Amino acid sequence: MARSAATTRKLVTYADDGNTLCSGPKIGPLCIQLNSYLDTLDTWFSSMNLQISASKSMATIFTTFSNEVGKDLPIYIKGKKVPTHKDPKILGVTLDPMMTFKYHAKNIKEKINSRNNILKALAGSSWGKEKEILLTTYTAISKSIFNYAAPIWTPTLSDTHWGELQTAQNAALRTSLGCVKMSSIDHLHSEAKCMPVKDHNIMLSKQFLLSTLRPSHANHSDINAVPPRLMKETLTSKFSDSIRTHLQGDIVMDDLNYKEGIKSIHTESVKRTIQQQEVSKVLGVPAPPVSSTERILPRKTRTILSQLRSGYSTHLNSFLARINPLEHSDNCPSCGESPHNTAHLFQCQSNPTDYTERILWEDPPAAAAFLGLDTGQDELPLDDND
To answer: Which residues make beta-bridge pairs with 94?
Structure first.
């Protein structure tokens, strides 16, 4: 139930799930109307030899006034009281009285953290499956949870809760890449070729809003209707201005225009995400893509290279000294110079080279060979005569 200038009532069903909605300026009259309507529904269900269970139903108030959140609603079915719940789950989305979706975000984080344990079981920093397999597993078991029903809750979720979801995604990417906690978030997204949770959900919300502009869309009339009083951000109020740039004038949205608009939104969203990423800590400029030749290297070597590209690695004394300065000094074990960071590996006088840090991205196998890491080529196949 929400505040509006006039009273409205609606029945929404999906499969065996039904929800009766009633909105208006005062709670008392709304409850009276709902009870009357529930009596009518119960009569119809009884004629079909079906029953509505009061104990299995729930009543929830949606309001912009915090002092109304704790109200117990007098809703009854056949004289039995329907319990009032603050956080009902409808078709997998957890709602709350003030439509902040904080409980939904909490549930998402708990699910993702549980699935992150699966990723950890598949790989450590020195053993386990390849990065590509781990990222595919993340996409299969976790990404869909982040994105489920995104257009519903994305417009109103607070930055605090977005941050909690992002933390869960960061943990999954760190496991997949083998990076340490100090690694830059932008490094994780760049290496994994993955958009941050909020950016991805905003893109999906814009694409959904664009699809509702088609007259044939089931939500065309609902989404594009202007509420009498805008008390909360909606999908339309939040993103309608930004999707206008993807519309070709006032022409009717057909399938061809829709597909072009979807591609345009995707291209623009990915481009904006890349532009907002910080420059590489190691290169001082935006990092180039990692060469696909890295796939021939063992898991342990790939994780070390990824750590070195991030600037924080267990292979560097500069990192170890930050973790435990009593046991480690920030000096190169070969030449004694400081700091012993990624750049120094290619500038050390004890091991001169023409290579620069860019080789970590452009030719990982060569970088691994230069740094004395395992390249996976030590064990050669036996000759038929051996």
So the answer is: 89
Grouping H, G, I as helix, E, B as strand and the rest as coil, residue 76 is strand
10 phi-psi bin (left φ>0, alpha ψ -120 to 50, beta other): beta
Residue ranges of the domains in the chain? 8-94, 100-278, 292-370
Closest among 156, 239, 241 to 204, alpha carbons compared: 239
- Count the neighbouring beta carbons within 10 Å of the beta carbon of residue 43: 9
Measured in whole angstroms, how far is the alpha carbon of residue 309 from the centre of its chain?
24
Phi, psi angles (nearest 5°) of residue 167: -60, -40
The pTM of the whole model exceeds 0.85? yes
The residues near 365 (Cβ < 8 Å, ≥ 6 apart) are 293, 294, 296, 297, 375
- The span from the CA of 256 to the CA of 261, in Å, is 9
Render pLDDT for 4-52 as a digit per residue (tens, 0 to 9): 445 567 788 888 888 998 888 889 999 999 999 999 999 999 999 988 8
Cβ-contact 63, 69 below 8 angstroms: yes
Those residues with Cβ within 8 angstroms of residue 105's Cβ, 6 or more apart along the chain or in another chain: 153, 157, 161, 162, 164, 165
3-state secondary structure of 370: helix
- Tokens representing 369? 């060979």
Are the beta carbons of 169 and 116 closer than 8 angstroms? no
CB 265 within 8 A of CB 283: no
The CB-based long-range contact list for 118-124 (8 Å cut-off, 24+ gap) reads 119/172, 119/175, 119/176, 120/175, 123/175, 123/176, 123/178, 123/299, 124/178
Q: Please, what is the Cα angle at 70 between 64 and 71, to 5 degrees?
A: 95
H/E stretch holding 90 reads strand 89-90
The CA-atom distances, in angstroms, between 335 and each of 14, 51, 199, 314, 356 are 70, 82, 45, 19, 18
Instruction: Give 312-371 pLDDT, tens digit per residue.
Output: 999 999 999 999 999 999 999 999 999 999 999 999 999 999 999 999 999 999 999 999
